[in-house]
Design goal:
The protein is an alpha+beta fold. It is built from 10 helices and 12 strands. A 5-stranded antiparallel beta sheet has the order 2-1-5-4-3, with helices on both faces. α7 packs across α8 and α8 packs across α9. The longest helix has 20 residues.
């Protein structure tokens, strides 16, 4: 009985030994707030040295969980998102009979940095059930590296447009959305006219330069919701969400004019290019391959009709 009393007495708990652990740790105690009938208030009883060194806040600055959330997540919308996500994570963990809940959040540290942490909290204990141990693991560098690798796997390194893989993925997403909403989308495939002549005359460095200029023109002229991809070589593909045939043809014509108006300075030469475009709009019978094939055939018609034009 005496041992139990001592364990319940916060002053006798050997929290200071947690200073040797390199992970940030908060220990909170659930207490009943007699002033309101809501959930118990959680007061912070201990913060270890690693927490202060890595995240920066002291016990005086975050005496309870509410204050911690306000400082760690100063943006109200993100804070609400974190709190909702955390409550859902706790419910899922409890339903699975787990003793801990875990999620990843972007924490606003005292020094102004925003860093990703993996947060693990004790939600069930055999003794001292009003005590909650929360650990934080800094995964910022790892998460950023993973996200950067993911980004690089989806873009073309020369033009910084989406790559072929990402374009196919976007078509798949739009097909799925179109099936659900019965709203069309369109695909435009375009090709730089006489591009081989540019490479043969001025060299591949100039060819790359012209590819980037065309990519910039497509980017400037298209809409924010559109996916612009380098399809391969001198070909580009655009996925146009929520766009019917009429709107797609109008946008394709604007793209054609934007490229046609380019005047690119290469060494002592002023170079211009044109593009041919094939446009196709989705139907319920389409697949990724059938859409790409239809756009390719439309592009072929534009080439055969004299280039520098849009065909459907």
């Amino acid at each position: 009985m005496q041992l139990k009393k001592e364990m319940n007495n916060m002053e006798h708990l050997p929290f200071t030994s947690l200073d040797a652990i390199p992970l940030p740790i908060i220990i909170a105690e659930s207490v009943i707030d007699t002033s309101c009938a809501q959930e118990p208030k959680r007061l912070h009883r201990f913060i270890n040295r690693a927490f202060y060194e890595q995240i920066g806040y002291s016990m005086e600055e975050i005496p309870d969980t509410r204050t911690w959330f306000e400082l760690a997540y100063p943006d109200p919308d993100y804070r609400a998102k974190v709190m909702h996500g955390w409550n859902r994570t706790v419910e899922q963990s409890q339903s699975q009979g787990l003793c801990t809940a875990e999620m990843t959040t972007l924490i606003h540290c005292k020094n102004g940095q925003k860093r990703w942490f993996n947060v693990v909290a004790q939600i069930r204990a055999a003794i001292m059930q009003n005590l909650h141990i929360v650990t934080f693991k800094d995964i910022h560098d790892l998460k950023c590296a993973v996200e950067e690798n993911s980004r690089l796997s989806r873009i073309d390194p020369l033009t910084n447009l989406a790559n072929r893989r990402e374009a196919r993925h976007r078509i798949e997403l739009e097909l799925s959305r179109s099936d659900r909403t019965f709203q069309p989308f369109s695909v435009v495939l375009c090709d730089i006219d006489h591009f081989k002549l540019i490479n043969d005359t001025y060299g591949h460095a100039c060819g790359d330069f012209m590819l980037c200029n065309v990519a910039d023109a497509l980017r400037r002229t298209s809409r924010e919701i559109d996916c612009i991809a380098r399809w391969g070589g001198e070909e580009f593909l655009l996925v146009l969400p929520l766009t019917d045939k009429s709107a797609a043809l109008k946008l394709a014509e604007r793209l054609r004019k934007a490229v046609e108006s380019l005047s690119c300075r290469w060494e002592t030469e002023s170079l211009s290019v044109s593009i041919s475009l094939g446009c196709v709009t989705s139907s319920h019978e389409n697949s990724v391959e059938s859409l790409i094939d239809a756009a390719d055939k439309a592009l072929y018609r534009a080439k055969n009709a004299g280039r520098n034009r849009v065909c459907e």
